[in-house]
C-alpha cells in the first residue's frame, strides 16, 4: 500500500468518528431530557446537525446509540487484548489480565454508566439487548482463546473459562454500581477473580 493512502483516509476517518460521537452524545442528552420513548430519530438528527438519512449511515436505531455508549468498542478491544496475552499462563489468567488491562484503560465514569444502565432498563427490548452484550463479550473471549489454544479437545473448557470470566466482570460491575463507583472497577474485578479461584 502506498504511503499516501493512509494520509488521505485519516481526515475522513476522523470526521466519521467525530460525527458518530456527536450523534451518540446528542442522542444521550435527548434521552435524558425527553425520555427514551419520546425521543425521535428526527430530533436526534436535528440536534446533531445531520439529516435523517445520514443518521442511518451511523446507527440503525435509537437502541444502537445506547449500545454504543454501553460498549464503547469494549468487546472488540477485549478480543484483541486477550490475543495479546501470553500462552505461558492459564487461559483464565490470560482473560483476567486482559480484563484488568482494559478496565484500567477505559476508566469508566460512574455517573454516566448509571444513566446508561437506567436507560437500558427502560423497556424489555433494551433489557434483552443489554444482556446480549454480555453474550457477545463471552463469544469474543472464547474466539480469542480458541486461537491461542487451538486444540479441539480444549474447546469445552475454554468456553467455560469465557463464561466464568465474563461472569466475574458482571459481578465486578454490579459491585462497583452498588458502591456508587467509590473504587475503580479494576479492584472489584481482582476481588471477583480471587473469589472465583478460592472456590475452584
UniProtKB/TrEMBL annotation:
InterPro entries (UniProt xref): DNA-bd_HTH_TetR-type_CS (IPR023772), Homeodomain-like_sf (IPR009057), HTH-type_TetR-like_transc_reg (IPR050109), HTH_TetR (IPR001647), MftR_C (IPR041347)
Domain of life from the UniProt record: Bacteria
Entry keyword annotation includes Oxidoreductase: no
Pfam family, one: TetR_N
Alphabetical UniProt keywords: DNA-binding, Transcription, Transcription regulation
DNA-binding region range list: 40-59
A molecular function (GO) term: DNA-binding transcription factor activity
PROSITE patterns cross-referenced by the UniProt entry: HTH_TETR_1, HTH_TETR_2
Boundaries of every HTH tetR-type domain copy: 17-77
Name by which UniProt lists this protein: HTH tetR-type domain-containing protein
Organism: Bradyrhizobium retamae
Amino acid at each position: 500500500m502506498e504511503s499516501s493512502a493512509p494520509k488521505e483516509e485519516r481526515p475522513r476517518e476522523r470526521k466519521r468518528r467525530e460525527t458518530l460521537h456527536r450523534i451518540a452524545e446528542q442522542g444521550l442528552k435527548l434521552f435524558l431530557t425527553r425520555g427514551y420513548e419520546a425521543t425521535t430519530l428526527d430530533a436526534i438528527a436535528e440536534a446533531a446537525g445531520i439529516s435523517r438519512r445520514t443518521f442511518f449511515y451511523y446507527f440503525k436505531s435509537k437502541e444502537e446509540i445506547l449500545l454504543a455508549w454501553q460498549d464503547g468498542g469494549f468487546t472488540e478491544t477485549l478480543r484483541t487484548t486477550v490475543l495479546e496475552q501470553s500462552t505461558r499462563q492459564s487461559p483464565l489468567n490470560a482473560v483476567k489480565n486482559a480484563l484488568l488491562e482494559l478496565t484500567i484503560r477505559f476508566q469508566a465514569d460512574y455517573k454516566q454508566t448509571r444513566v446508561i444502565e437506567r436507560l437500558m432498563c427502560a423497556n424489555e427490548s433494551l433489557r434483552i439487548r443489554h444482556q446480549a452484550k454480555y453474550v457477545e463479550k463471552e463469544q469474543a473471549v472464547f474466539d480469542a482463546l480458541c486461537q491461542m489454544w487451538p486444540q479441539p479437545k480444549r474447546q469445552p473448557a475454554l468456553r467455560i473459562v469465557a463464561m466464568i470470566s465474563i461472569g466475574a466482570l458482571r459481578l465486578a460491575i454490579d459491585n462497583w454500581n452498588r458502591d456508587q463507583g467509590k473504587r475503580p472497577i479494576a479492584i472489584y474485578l481482582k476481588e471477583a477473580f480471587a473469589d472465583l479461584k478460592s472456590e475452584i
